[in-house]
User: Fold this.
Amino acid sequence: MTDVINYAGVAFLLALMAYVLALFYRTLSQDRIARESVAMEGRRLRTQMDAIMAERRFVRDLKELSWNGWRKFEVASKVPETSDICSFYLRPHDGRPLPPFQPGQFLTFQLHLPDQRKPVVRCYSLSDGPGIPEHYRVSIKRVPPPRDKPDVPPGLASNYFHGQLNQGDILDIKAPGGAFYLDMTKQTPVVLIGGGIGVTPVLSMLNAIVSSGSKRETWFFYGLRNKTEHVLKEHLEQVAKENENVHLQICYSKPDDGDIKGEDYDHAARVSVDLFKEVLPSNNYEYYMCGPPPFMTSITEGLAEWGVPDRDVNFEAFGPASAKKAGPPAAAAEAGAGAAITVSFAKSGASLAWSADAGSLLDFAEDNDIQIESGCRAGSCGTCVIAIMSGEVTYLHEPGEAPDAGSCLTCIAVPKGDISLDA
Ligand SMILES: Cc1cc2nc3c(=O)[nH]c(=O)nc-3n(C[C@H](O)[C@H](O)[C@H](O)COP(=O)(O)OP(=O)(O)OC[C@H]3O[C@@H](n4cnc5c(N)ncnc54)[C@H](O)[C@@H]3O)c2cc1C
Assistant:
């Protein structure tokens, strides 16, 4: 009987101890969870605070250091990246510090080429992150004649940069501009996509993310033919190695025999939305892309089919834009909402019906084989300015520099009603 009482007592004591231990453990883990969530909230607030402070510094420096019109720059160095891509480090000739820029923006160059009557204006994306006040960097691909027209002259500006421009030479450059950039105040996960030389603006975005210390989840898809075209390979590998938030995905569409999967590249395929479906945990990202027209058309269409909202898809074309957002921008839709609009091109003698989905006056002219010179296609460089003979325009977004009265920047202008242009 005493044994039974003893056993019952021990069992009771054990149960009591287990209960006390469980209570203790629960309090401990609740305490730990509470401490972790306070720490997490603290980190989140600190990141937000840092971003707000960085934005304030950006606005202040931009105001103090930016310039209007053309500024003289000296080629500080010229560094070959591949057989047909070269980086140019550009230092302001006046020695004053440079204003910051938004990653993804570009520089506009006015080139006085030896055998050209008029200056040639071209845009090149900044290929490094902001925050280096001594120099800017652009990376330029030498453009050959089109495959089906081998007898026409090769690209004017790119061949001048590669063949004739040297260290110490002077260039005229406009301040960084463009509306295709990554908002550095946000922490939204991003997918950066570069095709060929279109890697330059997204490379700037990647460098901006890592140099700011942001832990923003970042996927970087880079599509190219093979290792011979692989720009800044070691740099990209280093960035991915040192930043666990960066996921590098290199896609070779035609790997050479010597190119090694897992070492040089990750996928023997083109960058595609099917690949995103395989690799990304979900479609819930902001997408930024730049590349050749068919590349961007297939990706923008694929993302729309995959259910990615239009507002999360951002792209830039280096030439005529073939990829278009699903709906026309609000200003265009508003302009096209009334009666049919006729656009007359006085020099070409064409009168054509314009509707909102035809896009800007520049896109509309190009689609109808009417030549208008263009540069940035973002309302910044002023190359596509055309005199308005009658009628009015509205802008798809605020121009970088307003054109003279009576003219319009055709790359971002849509007609308000019937209009006649001097083109
Ligand atoms: C916002 C923006 C950013 C950019 N960023 C970069 C960048 O970072 N890096 C980069 O390398 N590029 C970039 N570009 C592209 C760059 O601006 C130029 O368009 C590119 O270098 C070609 O210019 P080019 O003067 O060398 O060629 P162009 O002289 O404009 O010639 C273009 C093509 O037309 C061909 N051609 C010439 N004459 C004829 C003819 N009679 N008939 C048919 N074809 C003809 C040429 O052979 C060539 O293939 C960017 C463009 C934009 C708009």
Notes: The radius of gyration is 28 Å. The chain has a mean pLDDT of 91. The longest helix spans residues 2-65.
